[in-house]
Amino acid sequence: MTKKRKQPVRGLEGVVAAETFLSHVDGANGKLYYRGYDIDQLAGRACYEEIVYLLWFGELPDAEQLDSFRAELVAEMRLPEQVSELLRLSPPNANPMVVLRTAVSALGMFDPDGGKNTEQANLRKAKRILAQVATIVTSLYRMRSGQSTVSADKDMGFAENFLYMLSGKTPRKIEREVFDTTLLLHADHGLAASTFAARTTVSTLAGMHSAISSALASLKGPLHGGANRKVMEMLEEIGDADRVAPYIEGMLGTGQRIMGFGHRMYKTEDPRSRHLRKFSNKLCSRAGCDQLYEISQKIEALVLERKGINPNVDFYSATVQSALGIPKEYYTCIFAVARTAGWIAHVMEQFHDNRLIRPSSTYMGGFDRKFVPLAKRSAPAGAS
Ligand code: COA
Question: Does the structure show a pLDDT above 60 at 1?
Answer without folding.
Answer: no
